[in-house]
């Protein structure tokens, strides 16, 4: 098993290579579709149809945006959390979906990328819905952990032999410091998720926006102590800024 790290639109892409198949640890951005296929065909010298499974850790644009199109292009399956319903359901969900796509495009420009507003389906149709503790279909070395907080359906995936875990957006680095992600819808669940990874004590942690970090270098107690105690979401941020402008705070 070898994990290849590819520079994506606004996140790191982790492609796991086996002699007979490939596993994508997240669904990437919509803008990463051609990057992933080019890497498979020209860097690895493999067929795109060797991509057997795409995990989707949660529904944000840089984690689910390319999943459906890549699955279609490569005849791959999609696996995700067994959380009920769809994250972007209803009218509020539709507004949040567009907001998240705009935020992803904005972050891309901050990283020096060309402005790209790429639409992707707000409803995910997966082939496998995975419960906490299940192993990944056809990749039994990898085990699912539910790590909600950022959303209600975040998952991490733990490679048992090497003791490495991909946690997606469980933490992000800002100005050299690891902090909670934005948005954070479920603060209590988030702290429980951090504690679960701390107790697991993997050898290293792979982040969507920072790369691989040795477990010993992560201050989990500090992350838990500094995590928001109330939800930090799009709407709350907008309300706070409006109040600040109007001098109500």
TrEMBL record:
Superkingdom of source: Bacteria
UniProt keyword ATP-binding present: no
SMART domains linked: Lactamase_B
Keyword terms of this UniProt record: Hydrolase
Pfam families: Lactamase_B
Domain called Metallo-beta-lactamase: residue spans: 10-209
UniProt GO molecular function: hydrolase activity
Magnesium listed as a keyword: no
InterPro entries: Metallo-B-lactamas (IPR001279), NDM-1-like (IPR050855), RibonucZ/Hydroxyglut_hydro (IPR036866)
Name recorded for this polypeptide: Zn-dependent hydrolase
Annotated organism of origin: Pseudoalteromonas ulvae
